[in-house]
Amino acid sequence: MTALRIADGFRRGAAVTFDVDGVAVVGHRGETLAAALLAAGFARLRHSPRDFSPRGAYCFMGACQECVVQVGGVLRQSCQVPVEDGLVVGLKGSL
Ligand code: FES
Q1: If residue 17 lies in a helix (H) or strand (E), which one and from where to where?
Q2: Which residue among 10, 13, 45, 48 is least packed, with the fewest CB closer than 10 Å?
């Protein structure tokens, strides 16, 4: 054991499957939805309502609101939602 946890290797949690606009995506237990989306290649999560520019997770700690997506039809900050089996995520129609 060293002072740095990452020096001992990195183990992801068990795989979970969730739905993003009808596409099955694999994440890992212990990750936030924002992290799982980014790891799966979903960097753009929504468009700005003002100028339609692409937006994505920025702070990963619930402060910026840039990661808002629909989770089960409700707008949520994806960096504050633990990824789990069966989540239904909508990127289309998010703010
Ligand atoms: S990434 Fe900033 S609130 Fe989620």
Answers
A1: strand 15-20
A2: 10
Q: Residue 28 and residue 37: Cα distance in Å, rounded?
A: 11
Digitized pLDDT (tens) for each residue of the chain, 95 residues in all: 568 877 888 788 999 999 999 999 999 999 999 999 999 999 999 998 899 999 999 999 999 999 999 999 999 999 999 999 999 999 986 65
Ligand 1 centroid distance, CA of 78 (Å): 7
CA-62 nearest atom, ligand 1: 3
pTM exceeding the 0.90 threshold for the entire prediction:
no
From 42, 58, 94, the mutation candidate for ligand 1 (largest count of ligand atoms within 8 A of CB) is 58
> Mapping DSSP to helix (H, G, I), strand (E, B) and coil, where does residue 35 land?
helix
DSSP state at residue 78: G
